[in-house]
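step=predict obj=Mechanosensitive ion channel family protein n=273
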Amino acid sequence: MEKLLANQYFLIGFKSLIVIIAGSILVKIISLMAGKILKKKLSSQTHILIKKFIFYIGWVIIIMTVLNIVGVKISVVLGAAGIMGIAFGFAAQTSVANIISGLFLISEKSFSIGDVIQIGDTVGVVDSVDLLSIKLKKFNNQYVRIPNENFIKSEVINITKYPIRRLDLNLGVAYKEDPEKVRDILFEIAKNNEYVLDNPEPNFIFTDFGKSSLKIFFGVWFQKQDYIATKNSIMFQIKRRLNEENIEIPFPHITVYRGEESKPFQFQKVNKN
């Protein structure tokens, strides 16, 4: 009798082991095949999530099959899972919200893996998109994990969504300078800069009369991958050229006048006896 029981336990264990090994191999093959097929038709983050979904569903089936071989009734497991689901439902609200938010983000296709995005004060490259969170790699090589729910509730700027970008510069020149001359110099610099695009044309706006300077906006267009090179080169060239043309870039200051214009503020020293 004991030998018979031992043989039965061995057979159950052997079947369970076969199911686990064969099932894991099958799940991996299906996941890889689905990934290769979907990679050509869907965005990178979508096909990665589908691969993970197939992986998790596959292992759920494997576990349920093993439990059935062992003799555990599936109905009992589902009933216990239902009770546990109610017990842990409130605790899992945040996770469920993140999963739903993640599905919305995927359907919107607002960004893809490799895009540079900004959420709040955080700027980084999208490293991965998961069911619960999105991982960013900042430019100082820091790793940032942001829950999907935060993305849905916040403004997200995709900096590299389009192939070209505009570099916006806000300048100030002294009141004695001619803004039309400054405009011509800036357009000449943009025209000769190797990174600045001819189309769209640069933007020049005489924006305001500031407290200490004439306010000028100047924007140039460039390929998105040339941001640092464009900004460095255009800033150096503007500073060098304005120096050559003796055009003053003022700093905030207060001018105190003497003489007639300051009469209301004159002081008189009184000698005390």
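step=describe
The chain has seven helices and eight strands.
step=end
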